[in-house]
């Protein structure tokens, strides 16, 4: 049978509401282009982007996030450079992209896409959550705590869209006992999803948390977040390069990087095993903390790392994690500042101390980390909030 293909023509649709137009090209692989619904009133931005809809925001407007925005399977949310989204509904304000949905939030260094809250304090709103179909190790699929959305699967190259030059501020609100949003949560995201030049600033929980998947990240800033700056669990096997983190000066914040394989089965497959390169981890002035904590069976490799102002540099925990790193040269070219008390520690699963072998890591006095040693990297100046 001969297949028929729908060829979309270039069109501009203008409506009388304060929204918008969408230009359609052959790249839009949907049969119906819908310019309706949630973006028509920027002062009341909430609702769903449904299958077949492409909703494009207007960068000249400020969008007031009065509730949740959910991008459903087959829907696309397009956020142009310079767009501002301001949350006002606390725990009810968040962006959730479901499996099969896509978000395209593409800013520039001069005009980043910004997510913030009307109350400019940490934990004033939820955050951004994206769910994909890439493999995880907690089951064939999982369900997010926030929004009960499915994630995970077998599509390693799944594409949830792209985020570039995006700043997320004051997110991480608590929504139940011991349950909080993160600034940016990536659930089972595939390798065709683009995550580059992302800043998560002054959140009340983790800056960026990755739950399995194969996504690769580049140029990440996570500063002044109250919990971990950057973390993974559930079988993440992607890469991350150019990561700059800075703890609050008060000492609030648990780790610079926290890596986990699976908290209930340390040897679950696929095993978390990311490649991490070009990292600067700056601690606070008080309080004990770990710059990098790796446990519950995670693997990884590290190269070109700056560690400054932490009690512990690298902390290895659990038998399989310690075996992967100890004596294996998986941690290369690290500069430990003089204010790091313990460069590396290791503990077996039973909590007993393990002797660190000399070939576990090597030091490099002129390591550059995220690009500029202890100072803000050039690629992050301005758009990320760093100066």
Overview of the molecule:
This protein has one domain. The longest helix is centred in the last third of the chain and has 7 residues, at 319-325. The chain is 2% helix and 38% strand. The chain has a 24-stranded parallel sheet that branches. A two-stranded antiparallel sheet has the order 10-11. Strands 13-14 form a two-stranded antiparallel ribbon. With 387 residues, it is mostly beta strands. The termini are far apart.
The overall strand count is 28
How many helix segments?
A: 1
Largest sheet: 24 strands, parallel
Q: What is the CA–CA distance across the termini? A: 60 Å
Overall geometry comes to globular
Order of helix and strand elements from N to C terminus: EEEEEEEEEEEEEEEEEEEEEEEEEHEEE
The count of domains is 1
Pairing-aware structural class of the strands and helices? Answer: mainly beta
- Over all CA atoms, what is the radius of gyration? 21 Å
Q: Which strand-content bin applies to the residues?
A: 35-45%
Percent range for helical residues?
under 10%
**Low-pLDDT regions:** 1-35
What is the mean predicted local confidence, pLDDT?
A: 90
Question: Keyphrases for this structure?
Answer:
387 residues, mainly beta, 24-stranded parallel β-sheet, two-stranded antiparallel ribbon, 1 helix, globular, disordered N terminus
Q: SSE layout and pairings?
A:
Blueprint: E1 45-49, E2 54-56, E3 62-71, E4 76-79, E5 84-87, E6 94-97, E7 102-106, E8 113-117, E9 128-131, E10 142-143, E11 150-151, E12 161-169, E13 174-176, E14 179-180, E15 184-187, E16 194-201, E17 208-211, E18 216-223, E19 230-233, E20 239-246, E21 255-260, E22 275-282, E23 290-295, E24 301-308, E25 312-317, H1 319-325, E26 331-336, E27 342-347, E28 361-363
Parallel strand pairs: 1-3, 2-4, 3-5, 3-6, 4-7, 5-8, 6-9, 7-12, 8-12, 9-15, 12-16, 15-17, 16-18, 17-19, 18-20, 19-21, 20-22, 21-23, 22-24, 23-25, 24-26, 25-27, 26-28
Antiparallel strand pairs: 10-11, 13-14
């Amino acid at each position: 049978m001969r297949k028929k293909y729908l060829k979309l023509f270039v069109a501009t649709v203008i409506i009388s509401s304060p929204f918008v137009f969408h230009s359609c090209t052959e790249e839009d692989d949907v049969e119906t282009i819908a310019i309706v619904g949630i973006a028509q009133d920027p002062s009341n931005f909430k609702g769903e982007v449904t299958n077949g809809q492409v909703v494009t925001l207007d960068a000249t407007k400020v969008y007031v996030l009065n509730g949740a925005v959910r991008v459903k399977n087959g829907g696309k949310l397009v956020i142009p450079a310079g767009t501002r989204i301001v949350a006002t509904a606390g725990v009810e304000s968040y962006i959730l992209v479901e499996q099969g949905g896509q978000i395209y939030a593409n800013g520039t260094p001069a005009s980043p896409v910004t997510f913030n809250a009307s109350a400019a304090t940490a934990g004033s709103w939820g955050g951004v959550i994206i769910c994909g179909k890439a493999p995880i190790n907690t089951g064939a699929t999982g369900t997010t705590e926030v929004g009960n959305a499915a994630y995970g699967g077998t599509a390693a190259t799944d594409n949830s869209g792209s985020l570039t030059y995006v700043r997320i501020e004051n997110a991480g609100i608590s929504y139940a006992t011991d349950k909080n949003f993160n600034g940016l949560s990536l659930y089972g995201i595939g390798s065709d999803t683009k995550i580059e030049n992302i800043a998560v600033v002054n959140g009340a929980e983790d800056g960026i948390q990755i739950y399995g998947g194969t996504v690769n990240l580049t140029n990440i800033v996570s500063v002044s977040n109250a919990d971990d700056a950057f973390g993974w669990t559930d079988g993440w096997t992607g890469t991350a390069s150019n990561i700059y983190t800075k703890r609050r000066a008060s000492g609030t914040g648990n780790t610079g990087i926290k890596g986990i394989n699976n908290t209930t089965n340390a040897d679950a497959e696929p095993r978390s095993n990311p490649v991490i390169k070009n990292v600067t981890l700056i601690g606070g002035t008080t309080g004990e903390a770990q710059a990098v904590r790796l446990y519950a069976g995670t693997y990884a490799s590290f190269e070109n790392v700056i560690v400054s102002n932490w009690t512990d540099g690298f902390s290895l925990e659990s038998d399989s994690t310690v075996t992967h790193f100890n004596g294996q040269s998986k941690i290369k070219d690290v500069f430990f500042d003089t204010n790091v008390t313990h460069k590396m520690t290791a503990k077996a699963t039973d909590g007993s101390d393990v002797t660190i072998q000399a070939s576990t890591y090597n030091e490099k006095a002129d390591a550059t980390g995220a690009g500029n040693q202890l100072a803000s990297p050039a690629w992050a100046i301005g758009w990320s909030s760093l100066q």
